[in-house]
Amino acid sequence: MTQIIGLTGGIASGKTTVSEYFKQRQLPVIDADQVARDVVKPEQPALKEIVAIFGEKILTKDGELNRSKLGQIIFNEPEARQKANDIMHPYILQKIKSMLGMLSANGEPLVILDVPLLFESASFYALCDETIVVWVPRETQLNRLKARNHYSDDEAEARIASQWPLDKKRLMADSVFDNSTTKESLYQQIDDWLASHMNI
């Protein structure tokens, strides 16, 4: 039976690094962010619904979603963000369920489901048999985000504040990967986890 492992974290916590390492170890990874991009490609029904709500100003000249423009609209407007999520969520969930079904039919023992807002979304959380949180202290998260994205203190704080705190997520997780030191330490934690799970 396929075990579905939910992987989450916070912005600049290192979740992508963990996800990439799982791929290197030949585990199938479903990236919810990539699925979200796929469902709003031109001619997809989700994009048509979003344009109906927000107008063609959120499209590029090529008819693709301008994620930056949509982001500017929804980041500071919770009501608009909720509208966009309400449109996209069912399409994302449907595609992920389809992908999980195919991987299960292929006999995969473990599938990693990489979802940034895993705990915040009951429907994604319900798909998982176990969960992993990639954790760093808040100060480390803030400093890494500022260095990576060249944000001001206020910009970085606002983006971190838009997600649940990592300290809250770590309390809810079955496993926690501490990414506050070196990449080698992080990889060792993943290897140890895999050693304990590959015989499920």
TrEMBL record:
Q: Which GO terms describe its molecular function?
A: ATP binding; dephospho-CoA kinase activity
Pathway where this protein functions: Cofactor biosynthesis; coenzyme A biosynthesis; CoA from (R)-pantothenate: step 5/5
Q: Where in the cell is it found?
A: Cytoplasm
Catalysed reaction equations from the record:
3'-dephospho-CoA + ATP = ADP + CoA + H(+)
Keywords from the UniProt entry: ATP-binding, Coenzyme A biosynthesis, Cytoplasm, Kinase, Nucleotide-binding, Transferase
User: Does the record carry Kinase as a key word?
Assistant: yes
Q: Name one GO biological process term.
A: coenzyme A biosynthetic process
Q: Name one Pfam family in it.
A: CoaE
Q: Name the EC number(s).
A: 2.7.1.24
InterPro entries recorded: Depp_CoAkinase (IPR001977), P-loop_NTPase (IPR027417)
Chief location category: cytoplasm
Annotated ATP binding sites: A12, S13, G14, K15, T16, T17
Q: Name one GO cellular component term.
A: cytoplasm
Reading the lineage from the top rank, the first entry is: Bacteria
State what this protein does: Catalyzes the phosphorylation of the 3'-hydroxyl group of dephosphocoenzyme A to form coenzyme A.
Q: Which family does it belong to?
A: Belongs to the CoaE family.
Q: Can you name this protein? A: Dephospho-CoA kinase
Organism field: Aerococcus suis
